[in-house]
Amino acid sequence: MKNNNYSTAIIISLVLHGLLVAALLWGTDFAMNEPKPAGNTIKAVVVDPNLVNQQAQRIREQREAAKQAEQDRLRRLEQQAEALEKQRQAEEQRLRQLKADKLKAEKEAREAEQERKRVAAERAKAAEEKRKADEAARVAREQAAKAEAERQAKQEAARKAEAERQRQIAEQRKAEEAKRQAEAEAKRAEQERQAQIAAKKKAEEEARVAEAARQEAERKAAEAREVQRQQEAALSDMFAGLEAETEQRGGARGQFIADETQRYGAIYTQMIQQNLLVEQSFIGRECVIRMRLSANGLVLDASEEGGDRSLCRAAKAAVVKVSQFPMPEDPAVIERLRGIRLIVSPQ
C-alpha cells in the first residue's frame, strides 16, 4: 500500500513539472523574422520572472495540497482498516466465546443428566433399603412386643410378690416408726421450749439495742437539723447575690451548673449503689429517689418517687448509711444538689 502511495506522488510530481515547463514555453516568443539586409540583428525574448515564480509557487502549492490530500486519504484508509481489524477480532472473540459457552452448556447438560441418573439410582437404592429396613423393623417390633408381653407377665408376678414382702416390712417399720416418733416428739418439745427461752432473751436484747440506737439516731438527727438550719441561714445571706448573678449570666454558666450537677449526681448514685445490699431480684429494676441535703452534704431526708418498692427501701437504707455526700465549692451547684433526684438501678 505504501509503494502505491509513493508511485502516485511521483506521477503527480511529474505532471506538475510538465505543466511548469509548458507554462514557461507558453510565455516564450518563437516567431522568427526574416533577416534584414542591413546586417546581423539579435532579438532577445524576455521571460517575466514574477510570472515564472507565481507559476512555480502555484505548482508547489498544488503538489503539496495533493500530497496532503493523499496522506489524509491514506490515513483514513488505515484507520478504517484498523477499525475493521478490531471488529473482525471482536467478532472472532464473540464466536469463540459462543462456541465455548455452547460446549460448556453441553458439558453441563451431560453432567446434569449423569447426576440425575445417579440421584435416581440412589433414590431407588434408598427406597429398596428403606423397604427392607421397614420389614426388618416390623419383624423386630413383633418380636419385641412378644418379649415385652412375656416380660410384663413375669414383672407382674414379681411385683405381687414384692408388694407382699413390702407390706410386711411396712407394718414392721410402722410400728418402729411410731415408737421413734413418740421419742422424737418428746425430745423436740424440750428443744422447742429451750429455743423459745433463748429467742425471748435474744429478742429482748435486740429490742434494747435497737431502742438505744434509735434514740442515738434521733439525737444525731436533731443535732444535724440544727446545724443545717444554722448553715442554711448563713448561706442564704451569703449566696443571695451570687444566685441572682448566676441566673443573669445564663448560657455557658448554666451549662456548667448542669454538667456539674450531673457529674455529682453520678458520684452520689455510685456511692449509694456501693452501700446497697443487692439482692438477685433487684437486677434490672430501678428506683427513683429524691434526696434533700444540707449545704455541706449531710442527708436531711430521702424519699422514693417511683420504681420498685423493695429496691427503694434498700436504696434509702444505703443513703442513710452514707449519711453525708461530697459537695462542690460552687454555690449554684450546691443549691441544685440540695434537692437532687437520682435513679438507682443495680447491674
Automatic annotation (TrEMBL):
Q: Which UniProt keywords apply?
A: Membrane, Transmembrane, Transmembrane helix
**Annotated GO biological process:** bacteriocin transport
- Positions of the UniProt region annotated as Disordered: 103-229
Q: Name one GO cellular component term.
A: membrane
Recorded hits in InterPro entries, A to Z, give: Tol-Pal_TolA (IPR014161)
Gene3D superfamilies documented for this protein: 3.30.1150.10
Q: Where is the composition biased (Basic and acidic residues)?
A: 103-193, 201-229
Which GO molecular function annotations are given, in alphabetical order?
toxin transmembrane transporter activity
Q: Does the keyword Transmembrane helix apply?
A: yes
Bilayer-crossing regions: 6-26
Supply the name of the protein.
Answer: Cell envelope integrity protein TolA
- UniProt source species: Photobacterium sanctipauli
